[in-house]
Amino acid sequence: MTHVTAREPATDFGRFFLPGPTEVRPEVLAAQARPMIGHRGTAIKELIAEIEPGLQRIFGTCRPVYVSSSSATGLMEAAIRCCSRERVLSLVNGAFSARFQEIASAHGRTVEALEVPWGRGHTADILDTALGRGSYDAVTVVQSETSTGVLNPVAELAEAVHRRDDVLLLVDSVTGVGGMAVEADRCQLDFVLTGSQKALALPPGLAFGVAQEAALRRAETIPNRGTYFDILAFEAGLAKHQTPNTPAVSLLYALRMQLARIEAETPAMRYRRHADMAARVWQWVEEMDDRGIGLSMLAPEGYRSPTVSCICLPEGRTGPEVTARLKDRGFTIAPGYGQLKDTTIRIGHMGDHTVAELDELLHHLEGVLAP
Ligand SMILES: *Cc1c(COP(=O)(O)O)cnc(C)c1O
User: Which domains are assigned to the chain?
Assistant: First the structure.
């Protein structure tokens, strides 16, 4: 017989450090177990109205925040379909930014990639030069490259983009929103999106996005926006506190509880906790290296994500081997991604984890790397 327990002892939390999906608190998981409601009735409107302010706060916006019942890639597709016309410049420095580029190509856009090596970040200067060379109508960027742990300076990149006429900035902030201050309005991020299963520490299945006025104006001029990911449909739905199609109602219950938890902690303290966890990893890597273990952070100082760390392994150790040994000790992290699979490991220190839980993980990682 299979037992499904809604509540596990809280002490089990703090062992699952994948950079997505991230660990979900038992009470947030349990919040999903409520009766269904219709998606055109008053109950859903009240629910959507209730979650709106919390979502606006974490996106740094006064605008409507779209709730898409899809994974984050769905809204990457929305960004391309609705906000790019013909010529896209994709800033590529890892697997997810390459995916953004591929999505643009798959939609028939003419795409040029501005590539820097995996592990490096993009600079406003180089972007400015590239923008001067071609006539692009949209730029794609990933704020926190989950494959490399690199944080791109999105505010500066946005400035460079907006010095040009009629160019939109499309931002994947999947491992950003909820783990660091994102300022969609102040930085004029024309479209910015995230997913539920990363720094928001919800189950997978929802994506969230915000479009600035310029993005909506652009969408109105684009004929083949499709149906499911049409941002104008999201916009029209939200004006009535509705979603265009049946939303993942159970996930909305979990979202409501998680937003209340974020509010109780305060977003500022949540971002501080993430910054502290990242700093703890950097310090530990340095300590290990001083002891001759030969570890290093892939991303240079100043370009490191507060939510995910990619650590270069010493000669003779591989990502799959180290993660397997850690698993034997009851802890889950990820090997490197794609071309970095063997040479690195990745720790997702985001969502609801604490420095104390991270310390426990690092203690065991130390046991694996320096027995
Ligand atoms: C996880 C991730 C995605 C893809 O999200 P899905 O929810 O799997 O579609 C895209 N971009 C980044 C930066 C990610 O970390």
Answer: 26-264 (3.40.640.10), 267-369 (3.90.1150.10)
